[in-house]
Amino acid sequence: MDREHKDVLAYVEVSDGKPVNVGLELLTCARSIADGAGGKVLAVLIGSGLDAAVKKVAASGVDRVIVVTDPAYTVFRQDEYTSVLERLIRRYEPAVVLTGNTPLSIGLAPRLAARFQSGCVADVTSVRRENGRLTWVTTRYCGTVLANEVITNSALQFATVRPGSFSKPEASETAAPVEKISVAVPADAVRTKIRDTVQKISETVNLEDADVVVAGGRGMGSAENFKLVEKLASLLGGVVGATRPVIEDGWISRAHQVGQSGKIVSPSLYIACGISGATQHVTGMTSSRFIVAINKDEDAPIFEIANVGVVGDVMKVLPVMMEEIRKIKTEA
């Protein structure tokens, strides 16, 4: 890493006026990188109506919050946001630029890397410093293989951070200074325009923020049996998750899908009911802090990643589990 450029610039995505989870999580990653190099963490927010989000980020252990607020940035547009970040990078000259690996932010880092003729590492799960260089850890083959990546062709590095890979930073008693700046994007830099937006009316399921997720797979047997998963989730104050086959069979809406083609979750507790452990599903929940798996097949792959495995008929195990939970709640 260049001696003069030691800072980390972290773009914090905002949704509905609040920082998205990975936007806060990547600040922990940024802090570890900056501390190792003797640099600072510069958090960047772009948009309008950001007061609450700025307050949250400023108390997240960063050294400075840079706010680019303008009515023109009410809606996320790839061209404008890329151009804004490019100007900020040239102005503050960081050594590392981080964004979240979300549907919106995922395109920013590679675009910026191309403009600065640098490398970009996608879907980072951890990072360490070896011999003065950063080694980025990513996953391959749906999370079954870990790969170490090093950018050697540039002092400026770009990376996207996988949701759930880092913990959110502890709230700081001292808020970081906030710098509000104006960045105008030239008209010729915008190659696409959003004429209209349509919000799809669907069930709102906040799997990403859930502390407890109870997920069911095809091993539940039927839509009627799947209601046990919903009851357990309700009992634990959690959210219902599901595998792709369950979604395709119509047992529950697609909003509940966890996995490679669904949502990536990282709850404190993940209970897998009748889930075999196909890599397409596992890649979306391996960041869970504690995994309990229930399956009648003792050779099911899900047991390889579970902290606790219960070999048995899920239809018999779940009622007993819920009864014991109710007893514990009553005694408490």
Keywords:
16 strands, 9-stranded mixed sheet, 2 domains, Rossmann fold, 8 helices, alpha/beta
Could you describe the 3D structure shown?
- With 332 residues, the protein is of the alpha/beta class.
- The protein folds into two domains: 182 residues, 3-Layer(aba) Sandwich (Rossmann fold), CATH 3.40.50.620; 120 residues, Rossmann fold, CATH 3.40.50.1220.
- It has eight helices and 16 strands.
- Helix 3 packs across helix 4 and helix 5 runs parallel beside helix 8.
- The protein is elongated and about 60 Å long.
Q: How is this fold's topology laid out?
A:
Layout (H helix, E strand, L loop, with lengths): L7 E4 L2 E2 L2 E2 L1 H17 L3 E7 L3 H8 L5 E6 L8 H15 L3 E5 L7 H8 L4 E11 L2 E8 L4 E5 L7 E5 L16 E4 L30 E5 L6 H14 L2 E4 L1 H5 L20 E5 L5 H4 L7 E6 L12 E4 L2 H18 L1
Parallel strand pairs: 1-4, 1-6, 4-5, 5-11, 6-10, 7-10, 12-13, 12-14, 14-15, 15-16
Antiparallel strand pairs: 2-3, 7-8, 8-9
Helix pairs in contact: 3-4, 5-8
Short summary:
By secondary structure, the chain is an alpha/beta fold.
Task: List segments where confidence is low: pLDDT < 50 over at least 5 consecutive residues.
Answer: none
What CATH calls the topology of the largest domain is Rossmann fold
Report the major sheet: 9 strands, mixed
Alpha-beta content class:
alpha/beta
Mean pLDDT over the full residue set: 91
The helix tally amounts to 8
Strand order of the largest sheet: 9-8-7-10-6-1-4-5-11
Please report the distance between the alpha carbons of the first and last residues.
53 Å
How many strands?
Answer: 16
- Taken together, the total number of domains comes to 2
